[in-house]
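go over whats below:
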Amino acid sequence: MFSRLPFNTQKKFVIFGFVSLPLLLLLTFSYYPALELIRLSFTSWDGLSPNKEWIGWSNYKEVFANPAIFGVFKHNFAYFVVGIVQNIAAIYFAVVLNSKLKGKNFFRLLLFLPYILNGVAVAYLFGYVFDTTNGSLNYLLGQLGFDALSQTSWLGNESFVNYTLASIGFWRFMGFNMVIYLAALQSIPSDIYEAASIDGANGWEKFIHITLPNIYKIIELNLFLTVTGALEVFDLPFVLTKGGPAGASETFVMKIIETAFQFNNYGLASAMSVVLLLFVVIVLSIQRFLLNKKGD
């Protein structure tokens, strides 16, 4: 019966069929939960009671007025700083491995392998690396003669615990960023570099005037992923430090989980989630504005 319909009608049915299912899934699992999250953020729901008492903006006032909640955002700064360094290193390795280097495919695989490992497994792995007494890092430092550093508690010092955790993310995600940059570099025509060489340009000049402008949008994309990842980090501090020492490594996402599942304050946790979403949007909007302005 469907085959007897006019071709244009059949086409409309097919388009509607292909579009409606993704839209239905998007509305069911993305937009509806987001709207419900916003609604719950104005209540004092405990997660169990059928009654969701409306309390207005009280949860949002608590988020911004309580330094124990909003103040943990400063712990995410270390992940942002290390993420920027990670992108610089990824660009460097991408440029090197895009050249005529022997065994470059092996090195590409070697750098990308950490990304495919499970995040919890990586956290446990580095738990042994950073162990104060029996850790491989302190043992190596001791063998190299750095006796003062060989007794460092890398996960127990409030001053740099977040940078220690962020360095694990550096090791894990640098290869992923490198592959993205490498794909962008391979899309640049080699004729441009050959013409630049004929004009007498050196390697640095080629990088500044040819490579960077051509991968600028990819840099913007990776910075987007870096910023969102830095603001939403959870697994590494949760597994390795539980937010310690003395809450020094607790991230905002950990605070949301704790508020919801430990203190059963789903209304406040929902408000915190909305604040995180808005914060991500604001930071990314500023980043995009600055990068587009610089690109123009």
In short: The chain has 14 helices and no strands. Residues 148 and 209 are 45 Å apart (CA to CA). The chain has a mean pLDDT of 88.
